[in-house]
């Protein structure tokens, strides 16, 4: 999502070509879309934390990482609103303060990348609690590769121009990398991130298939734990819109901004749904006997991404997992 002096020069050139340009403004609709999406993430994250609170479950690393991802998302959305104030959503020839716009836009891009990386990391850390052997090693590889590749995208944003100030002010003497270099790398990192989302979403199938569960329970657990694939699809769709960064007209980046926001929001929702599913199920069974309620709590620990054992790298065999899920 990074923009630099190359884009500034193209924008200014486009602005000087003609005065007979359209004057569309998608800023309001963009603002409504990103804040609606952020509101959805806010609701699901708070419900996740509330469910853990009333069940007297302590927060673990996946919760803290998810909260950090939400903070980055909130910063991204707030900064996007600032960008809209400076002209995002308008055509390039209608923007006047380019220095301020590009300065905020690049910070926004970094926040977006961080939010995406940390939300995916939260889901992966959750799966670490349920995995052993080759699957555990694979998850660590996914965590490392996603954070390294997306982290480099953040770094490249600010090292592509010398001096750095030239990134948002083309009047400063200096030089920047060819814009295609940044776009191609960000396309790679975004596509890799999306592919890892889809891979992570398939891992629960391997875990659940080793357990003895009723068909209805099995389907519910798998659906809840596989929603992360939607974030992967969104990330891949975002990759197709990254070329809009070099478009002389800023209005072309509106779709990119929405998809970037949606990617993180979908991940937060996906990792929160299994915990909410547990809460809803327990609420519906509130009139059951004490023994039945206890069995229900045990039977949904896997679907709620929680084990009754301490959150340490322990080894759990298939029979033990089955006991935790079935409540026997």
Structure notes:
There is one protein chain. This protein is mostly helical and 328 residues long. Helices cover 70% and strands 1% of the residues. It contains eleven helices and two strands, in the order αααααββαααααα. It is globular, with a radius of gyration of 23 Å. Mean pLDDT is 78; it is low at 293-316 and 319-328.
Brief write-up:
The protein has 328 residues and is an all-alpha fold. The chain has eleven helices and two strands; from the N terminus they run αααααββαααααα.
Write the layout of secondary structure elements.
Blueprint: H1 5-17, H2 27-54, H3 61-86, H4 98-128, H5 133-159, E1 161-162, E2 175-176, H6 179-208, H7 215-225, H8 228-239, H9 254-284, H10 290-299, H11 318-326
Antiparallel strand pairs: 1-2
Question: Could you tell me the mean pLDDT?
Answer: 78
Radius of gyration: 23 Å
Number of helices: 11
Beginning-to-end CA distance, first to last residue: 51 Å
Order of helices and strands: HHHHHEEHHHHHH
């Amino acid at each position: 999502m990074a923009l630099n002096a190359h884009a500034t020069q193209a924008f200014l050139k486009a602005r000087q070509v003609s005065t007979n340009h359209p004057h569309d403004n998608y800023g309001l609709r963009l603002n409504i879309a990103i804040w609606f999406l952020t509101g959805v993430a806010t609701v699901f994250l708070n419900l996740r934390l509330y469910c853990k609170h009333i069940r007297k479950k302590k927060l673990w690393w996946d919760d803290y990482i998810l909260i950090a991802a939400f903070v980055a998302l909130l910063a991204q959305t707030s900064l996007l609103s600032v960008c809209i104030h400076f002209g995002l959503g308008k055509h390039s020839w209608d923007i006047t303060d380019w220095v301020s716009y590009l300065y905020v836009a690049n910070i926004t891009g970094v926040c977006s990348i961080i939010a995406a990386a940390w939300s995916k990391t939260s889901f992966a850390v959750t799966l670490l609690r349920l995995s052993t052997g080759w699957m555990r090693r694979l998850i660590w590889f996914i965590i490392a590769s996603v954070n390294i590749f997306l982290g480099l995208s953040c770094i490249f944003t600010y090292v592509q121009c010398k001096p750095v100030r030239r990134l948002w002010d083309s009047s400063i003497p200096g030089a920047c990398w060819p814009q295609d270099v940044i776009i191609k790398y960000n396309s790679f990192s975004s596509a890799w991130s999306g592919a890892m989302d889809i891979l992570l979403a398939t891992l629960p199938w391997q875990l659940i298939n080793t357990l003895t569960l009723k068909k209805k329970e099995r389907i519910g657990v798998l659906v809840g734990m596989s929603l992360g694939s939607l974030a992967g699809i969104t990330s891949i769709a975002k990759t197709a819109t990254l070329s809009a960064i070099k478009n002389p007209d800023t209005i072309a980046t509106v779709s990119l901004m929405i998809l970037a926001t949606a990617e993180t929001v979908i991940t937060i929702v996906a990792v929160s749904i299994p915990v909410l599913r547990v809460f809803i199920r327990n609420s519906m069974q509130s009139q059951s006997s004490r023994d039945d309620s206890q069995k229900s709590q045990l039977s949904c620990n896997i679907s709620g991404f929680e084990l009754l054992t301490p959150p340490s790298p322990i080894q759990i065999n298939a029979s033990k997992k089955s006991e935790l899920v079935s409540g026997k």
